[in-house]
Amino acid sequence: MWRTLRSEWGKTWSLRAPWICLVASAVLVAVTASSLANDFVYGIAERPASARMPLMDAVGPALNLGQVAFAAFAMQLVTAEYASGAIRSTLLAQPRRVTLVVAKAAIAAVCGLIVGAGSGVLAAWTSRLLLAEHLATGAESYLLVALRSGALMATVGILVVAIGALLRSAVGTLAAASVMLIGTLVVPTALGRWLPGQAGASFLSGAGEPYPGVVGLLVVTAWAVLLLGLGVAVVVRRDA
After folding, report:
1. Does the predicted model carry a pTM greater than 0.85?
2. What CA–CA distance (Å, rounded) separates 135 from 41?
3. Domain ranges of the chain
4. Which entry of 9, 83, 134, 151 is 20 to 30 Å from 109 by CA?
């Protein structure tokens, strides 16, 4: 496993595209959070002078949107090799397909943890700066924001790798991931709370609705584990 991880890690950073996707994800999160905070302070909508914005009302939606850019990174760990045909060489070097898929998922999780934590803290800092006295009391600490955003993004990385292993297509994987992470936000809560989008949003907000935040992370994790198991089964059974 260790050799496979080292090999996959080296391949990941041998191209510019992964770097671009990760930077784009961090920038998108920070810019979106700043825009939401700025709109609250200077928006045209009339609000009572005493109105205050919870920190995660700016950071949470920004992280939800940033997941799409991160998904573009995570899917490349799988789909890029199928598109180029390099997967044949990879499977010759590591014929244990379960090990290969798990290694790719682990790399996506580590990168998601780092990028999620970093972009979450950056978004929280810019939001605090813009909101100033308009920030609600009891705002989450930078450490808590980093833990929430990093944990969610790591889980999303595993989920996207799993979808990539199932579909192999870059377009199909990105479309499916976008629907699961963003599209499910508009599903009625009775059903949507058990889908990755709303579960992740609930975890980030920490508001306790419709269930405690940690349950939201467990829901996303369950989806990631389920899809990863299916992805591994499909990769083991089919030709490269």
Report:
1. yes
2. 10
3. 2-237
4. 83
